Amino acid sequence: MARLSLPAETELSAEQLAACREVQAGPRGKVPGPMIAWLRNAELARCAQKLGALLRFETTLEPALTEITILLRARHW
């Protein structure tokens, strides 16, 4: 099964393009894979990205502990 690819900017609505640019301007610097699917609903993409950024980049844990936590959760699921 083929993965979804990020549509060309000309194929995105104004809301979708704004959501992409918001993510690219943040700490990730690029549009992550799951967001490509979420972009079908620009508001969902924007909210989910903010939640992900909060959980990954704005925690009280030091970066190494955050990464270990993410890896442990991924392994569990």
Overall description:
The protein is an all-alpha fold and 77 residues long. The chain is built from 4 helices and no strands.
| Low-pLDDT regions | none
Gyration radius, rounded: 14 Å
Percent range for β-strand residues: under 5%
Number of helices: 4
Q: Indicate the structural class.
A: mainly alpha
The gross shape turns out to be elongated
Distance between the termini: 21 Å
Total count of strands: 0
**String of helices and strands:** HHHH
For the biggest sheet, the summary is:
none
Q: What is the typical, i.e. mean, pLDDT?
A: 88
Helix fraction, binned, reads: 55-70%
Outline of the structure:
The protein has 77 residues and is mainly alpha-helical. Helix content is 61%, strand content 0%.
Tags for this entry?
77 residues; 4 helices; mainly alpha
Strand and helix map with partners:
Layout: H1 14-24, H2 33-38, H3 42-57, H4 63-76
Helix pairs in contact: 1-3
